[in-house]
Amino acid sequence: xxxxxxxxxxxxxxxxxxxxxxxxxxxxxxxxxxxxxxxxxxxxxxxxxxxxxxxxxxxxxxxxxxxxxxxxxxxxxxxxxxxxxxxxxxxxxxxxxxxxxxxxxxxxxxxxxxxxxxxxxxxxxxxxxxxxxxxxxxxxxxxxxxxxxxxxxxxxxxxxxxxxxxxxxxxxxxxxxxxxxxxxxxxxxxxxxxxxxxxxxxxxxxxxxxxxxxxxxxxxxxxxxxxxxxxxxxxxxxxxxxxxxxxxxxxxxxxxxxxxxxxxxxxxxxxxxxxxxxxxxxxxxxxxxxxxxxxxxxxxxxxxxxxxxxxxxxxx
Length: 316
Hints:
Layout: H1 2-24, E1 26-31, H2 41-48, H3 51-54, E2 57-62, H4 70-75, E3 81-84, H5 86-94, E4 99-106, E5 111-116, E6 131-134, H6 140-149, E7 159-162, H7 167-173, E8 178-183, H8 187-193, E9 198-201, E10 214-219, H9 225-244, H10 246-254, H11 258-261, H12 264-273, H13 286-298, H14 308-311
Parallel strand pairs: 1-2, 1-3, 6-7, 6-8
Antiparallel strand pairs: 3-10, 4-10, 5-8, 5-9
Helix pairs in contact: 2-9, 2-10, 5-13, 9-10
């Protein structure tokens, strides 16, 4: 009897070792939305502290040459995961790309309509007849138009100028009176470091529905649910660590790439981003996604109305 028990125990241990060895070999490729920055804190901390490895996965982090391509590469099966934006995901799914939202990274909007706090544009109504700089043309008519409409200003009553990525410098130099796309955790700090005080108008306070700023997307046809569960668990563990140890986690974050990350702008952005990370990355809120999709549909940003149940699966 004892011999049988020993043999059973050995067999069980061998089986567990085999399973763990398989899990440890699981590799995921993750393409970021842009170069590494404080928005990616939980990913970097999970990597630096070995949380991914503890979950039996190896995550290969890549930075895109073109920030518009990551979701397309996921849809094409070239990478396993990518960071995108809830509005962009909705547009992509409505256009027929085989994508799902697998987790949330930043759970609140970061985008703003930003002006210099110099008394010239104290309200949105003050922007009537003025110039607004944007980085990428897309949904500005719906979002800016909705915000301005709250103050009785028509979208046709402002001048939209594409300034590329020179948002802060265009605002500081007076080339434009406002910028759309300045992030509340970055551009505000960047302008302040350059001697300018900025004022932000938040979309969710001016008629635009709240949304998840950054989400992870996977291929709807080929995603590995077990690997994503492991990824999300490590991500949640990293977020908890960041919230509990903000200063220590900052040091560990910059250790990932000291030459590019260890500066005052990133440290300020880090502090302003801490409350934005999704504490439960895998949590699903279908109504939040359906409501925003209906907003986009009503603004004619999408021609078909996708249902969250079809592209926001519960993976936990």
